[in-house]
Write a structure and sequence with these properties.
This protein is mainly alpha-helical and about 230 residues long. It has a single domain, classed as Urease accessory protein UreF. The protein is about 70% helix and about 0% strand. The chain contains 11 helices and no strands. The mean pLDDT is about 95.
Amino acid sequence: MQSAALLHLLQLASPSLPIGAYSYSQGLEVAIENGAVKDETSARRWIVEHLHQVVVQFEAPILWRLLHAFADYDAAAVNDWTEIFIAARDSAEFRAETIQMGYSLAKLVADLKIADDALLAMLQSQAEIPLPTALACAAVALQVPHEAVMLGSLFSWAENQVLVCVKSVPLGQVSGQRLLLSLRPELELAARKAQQLLDDELSNWAPGLSLLSMQHEVQYSRLYRS
């Protein structure tokens, strides 16, 4: 990968990207509250299972398809996969999360003027913009290789989950970095698998996570928005 593409990827995957990813736990806060995640071992188990049972099975493969759709200037495919992703959000919080971050990133793409008119038009033509759609548009506009985008996106997701654990379990900083380092082979495997799934193999079936998200909506005390 060329240095320019690498730097663009680091910017897109950075926790300083102003889209508010740090404010969401994706159900993890409830798992910490009820004791399912209580130490480094249980935190790693939670993140790995969430990665392979949810992210790899649906969210990452849709990002992969959106990357190709934007690269091919295929507006119909962008519309279809965007609608499918939004429709699959099975709690109010999960839906609000991806729409809020997608809106923020789409606004950033427009404000920074990094996309050509056709890419920007495909992005802004969506009634609502989820995060994968905005991310795919930004990555294609910045000419970041698709495979690298997948790894960067997965790492950014995992890093945010680890930071939730560091702050809320709580884990120490060294424990958090050890946990993140141990996830490298899992993230590599996840990226490869997400690229290989066929359309009829995609599934967002994760009833346990859905229930945790619904419980979080009425949780008495919470730090995160999901």
